[in-house]
Automatic annotation (TrEMBL):
The keyword Phosphoprotein applies. Gene3D superfamilies: 3.40.50.2300. Keywords: Phosphoprotein. This is Response regulator. Residues 4-120 form the Response regulatory domain.
Length: 122
């Protein structure tokens, strides 16, 4: 089974915490501090899911999600909004924009498990 997950966030602290939790759950993790290199890597390998930060300096998570959803080859990738901006109106906008789930920062193992749905060995 594919055990690969991507984390895309420009905050090293947020990446480190998410990486630690995902590895604890059994995922193999690749992380990116920007959406642009993640999109290039996505053309080579597809993760089961990605945690995609909404607010990044080069290409925001919403635009990155639109680009992912526009490519039929990437339809199987679960895209999870990873954000501190989680008012109900924002959550609904993210879901309507193509995200599969929303995780609010700071991330917890319970929130991660709920958004991902399973560990790679389940």
């Amino acid at each position: 089974m594919n055990k690969l997950a991507f984390i895309i966030d420009d905050s090293a602290v947020n990446v480190a915490v998410a990486r630690l939790l995902l590895r604890r759950l059994g995922w193999v993790v690749e992380d990116f501090d920007s959406a642009i290199p993640m999109l290039a890597r996505l053309a080579e390998v597809q993760p089961v899911f990605m945690l995609l930060d909404i607010s990044m300096p080069d290409l925001g998570g919403e635009e990155a999600c639109r680009r992912i959803r526009a490519n039929a080859a990437w339809n199987g990738v679960r895209v999870i909004a990873y954000t501190a901006h989680a008012m109900e109106t924002e959550r609904q906008r993210y879901l309507a924009g193509g995200f599969d789930a929303v995780i609010t920062k700071p991330i917890t193992i319970g929130g991660l498990h709920a958004a991902v749905g399973h560990a790679p060995n389940d």
